[in-house]
Amino acid sequence: MTPDTRDYLIELTNSHSVETLWKHHCDRMAEYGFDRLLYGFTRFMTATSFGDPNDFVVLSNHPAAYRKGFVEDGLYRDAPMVRWALEHEGHCSWRVLAEQLLTGEMDEKARKVVEFNLSHKVLAGYTISFKSVSHRAKGAISLTSRADISQDAADEIWREHGSDIVLMNNMVHLKLLTLPVPAPNKELTPRQREALEWVGDGKTMQDIAQIMGLTQATIEKHLRLARETLNVETTAQAVAKAAFQNQMFILEAR
Q: Could you tell me the residue ranges of all domains in the chain?
């Protein structure tokens, strides 16, 4: 491991926010020629669905037009490399896409995704599928090469630096699982977070009211708003979801 890679990993593991970590990582991957990244993670996957898109963790520095088509409009569901990531762990060159096209293995929906990618100069790259922590969880990241880098050139970069690139992306994935990553406009207020934390500690409404110096009616209001913010029906579900999103029991950056 080179000294600059070691310094990068130290800075990464000390990151206190998703924004800081993601910018740092995008800058680092660009040094290897991979200038556009797309990270996705779900913990609510089923046999027939990725789960509620509102519960996905998605990070990307692709242009807005690409993100809208691929993520918001749902093209990812038919993307060949997303399908690969669901069935494998490890890394894969996008060279397999050309092979699928040549052999006729790619269906029409997948072809449309490839055409969309080509129209946005998403031409070459690699996909890393992270080791799953459960059968309902899946995380992966796509690394798109600069438009002037061919797949042959990307494969050459990978032969020289692939092990370090995989290590750095694995560390990013593991670090993201520890950071608050709420969906847009779905962040708990400090009072909502505190009330949920006390519920998670097994305190009663009366206990929480006394601890927080508020009335029970006010505590109920904070918990109701927390349930609405997290789009769940029960307080127990709110505690579970807030814990998954790392919105509870967090240390503020200093």
A: 3-176, 190-244
The secondary structure element, H or E, covering residue 163 is: helix 151-176
d(CA 146, CA 149): 5
The whole-angstrom separation of Cα 8 and Cα 3 is 9
Residue found under tokens 């509620």? 52
Span 32-56, pLDDT tens digits:
999 999 999 987 777 666 766 666 7
Q: What is the DSSP letter of 203?
A: -
CATH code that applies to domain 3-176: 3.30.450.80
197 token code pair:
């934390």
pTM: 0.77
Q: Answer whether CATH 3.40.250.10 is correct for domain 190-244.
A: no
> What does the radius of gyration of the chain's CA atoms come to, in whole angstroms?
21
Q: What does DSSP assign to residue 76?
A: G
pLDDT tens digit sequence for 209-229:
999 999 999 999 999 999 998
